[in-house]
Amino acid sequence: MTIPMARRRPVTVRMFAQRFSSTPRGARMARRLALHQLHEWGVPYGAELSDTSALIVAELAANAVLHGRVPRRDCELALLYSPGLHLRIDVSDTRGERRPEARTAAGPLDEGGRGLVLVGALATRWEVLDRVPVGKTVRAELDLRRV
Questions:
Q1: Are 67 and 100 within 8 A, CB to CB?
Q2: At what angle do helices 115-122 and 48-67 cross, to 10 degrees?
Q3: 81-92 in b/e burial notation, b at 16+ Cβ within 10 A?
Q4: Which residues contact 79 (CB under 8 A, 6 or more apart)?
Q5: Chain segment 57-73, per-residue pLDDT in tens
Q6: Per-residue pLDDT tens for 69-102?
Q7: Cα 78 to Cα 109: distance, rounded to the nearest angstrom
Q8: What's the per-residue H, E or C state across the chain?
Q9: Which residues does residue 89 pair with via DSSP β-bridges, in sequence order?
Q10: In angstroms, rounded to a whole number, what is the distance separating the alpha carbons of residues 49 and 42?
Q11: 49 class by beta-carbon count within 10 Å (0-12 exposed, 13-18 middle, 19+ buried)
């Protein structure tokens, strides 16, 4: 006797990847490209998911160009989107030895140290992965079923 399989709706997964220069201008471009791509996928500008994603990409890209910069090497933005289910944001750089650490809080006079605290507050989870052949990827994931 066979057990009938439950019918599931097919899941559409959308992917986007783009390299950008390891400069402040490149980080701004990564944020703009992410917003544009999400808009093309049906997430309108100004929507909560769009604004949250923009903030996460801005923080991760700024960290990549500030702390992960290697001259003449690009950074990379990758998005993986399953509407209504999941959004994954990856920002990669070529400096594997400088890995970010999450801090609980920056001091009141500290000029930095708040970016990953913000990412941690907005994302469902985030992590740092090794990038093959060289570098690291900082990944932030949003579970859209919980929103």
A1: yes
A2: 150
A3: beeeebbbbbbb
A4: 14, 15, 16, 17, 34, 37, 38, 87, 88, 89, 90
A5: 999 999 999 887 777 78
A6: 777 788 999 999 999 999 999 999 987 676 666 6
A7: 33
A8: CCCCCCCCCCCCCEEEEEEECCCHHHHHHHHHHHHHHHHHCCCCCCCHHHHHHHHHHHHHHHHHHHHCCCCCCCEEEEEEEECCCEEEEEEEECCCCCCCCCCCCCCCCCCCCCHHHHHHHHCCEEEEEECCCCCEEEEEEEECCCC
A9: 79, 140
A10: 11
A11: middle
Rounded-to-integer distance, Cα 34 and Cα 16, Å: 9
77 within 8 A of 21, measured Cβ to Cβ: no
With 0-12 CB in 10 A as exposed, 13-18 as middle and 19+ as buried, what is 61? buried
Are the CB atoms for 119 and 60 separated by under 8 Å? yes
Are 124 and 139 spatial neighbours (Cβ–Cβ below 8 Å)?
A: no
pLDDT cut 90: percent of the chain above it: 61
